[in-house]
């Protein structure tokens, strides 16, 4: 079943600002969907529309089968939200925060067990939030979003401001909470975060969805290739690697030859060419990072964004379910 669907969703704030432009998006129930885009791409606006904090200018939206403009209450009851700048009260303890959210939502909750799911010990739960680290605050805010056991979790930039260890811990918690069929929709401009956690990614640029798919499928669809580094016994005098179509930037560092491969099928030609002229000792091949893929999609202006080719208007390149 579909957890989130938008059809031709457009949000204009005024004549000049088109924050979301004819967005067609489908998130399946139970998947972890990463909504990725640079600052100002329109991610928060979409989230605000899903929760009826902002009304669309045009288009249709359903969340868990409900229309936010008429049934926002139903959606909010079934959805846990971690907003970008979730505010906490310095004098209240972690436990008191959870109790307060539970009362406001009329939910029963085992406070300590919920807090331990996000990595806050019973001892920490009793401390005032003013003493919490950034990571602890973020984890508490996530626990608040989990009160009531929501079907859908919407996380807006969940790891903002966390250090790499904090981000890693947060990723693990999100992955664990995504079990049991819960849908997770989270926005980020940090590619590594999305790549590590999500089943599927949608890349938003200038209010338009420019690609959707699994991280692997997005990478292979663009065939951005990667690099190959080959350790050789000696570097041959004449090397014709640059002459191979799809091979660029050949560099030699002592006995290591490295080349950028823009067409991944050409790796084997590079190896054969070297094998003919020297003795190969070792081969290291690295695929293109999703970083490059992200840059490829988001560095383009709306006019020259990569072609889109499916019924929802973005390059859907495979769904892992
Ligand atoms: N209330 C508003 N009034 C006018 N313009 C707005 C409003 N809210 C957002 N915008 C504009 O809409 C565009 C999209 O903003 P949005 O906050 O949705 O992007 P974002 O992808 O969430 O960015 P970030 O990662 O920086 O939070 C931006 O140009 C922003 O300035």
From TrEMBL:
<dbReference type="InterPro" id="IPR003439">
    <property type="entry name" value="ABC_transporter-like_ATP-bd"/>
</dbReference>
<feature type="domain" description="ABC transporter">
    <location>
        <begin position="4"/>
        <end position="231"/>
    </location>
</feature>
<keyword id="KW-0547">Nucleotide-binding</keyword>
<keyword id="KW-0813">Transport</keyword>
<dbReference type="GO" id="GO:0005524">
    <property type="term" value="F:ATP binding"/>
</dbReference>
<keyword id="KW-0067">ATP-binding</keyword>
<comment type="similarity">
    <text>Belongs to the ABC transporter superfamily.</text>
</comment>
<protein>
    <submittedName>
        <fullName>ATP-binding cassette domain-containing protein</fullName>
    </submittedName>
</protein>
<dbReference type="GO" id="GO:0016887">
    <property type="term" value="F:ATP hydrolysis activity"/>
</dbReference>
<dbReference type="InterPro" id="IPR017871">
    <property type="entry name" value="ABC_transporter-like_CS"/>
</dbReference>
<dbReference type="Pfam" id="PF00005">
    <property type="entry name" value="ABC_tran"/>
</dbReference>
<dbReference type="InterPro" id="IPR003593">
    <property type="entry name" value="AAA+_ATPase"/>
</dbReference>
<dbReference type="InterPro" id="IPR027417">
    <property type="entry name" value="P-loop_NTPase"/>
</dbReference>
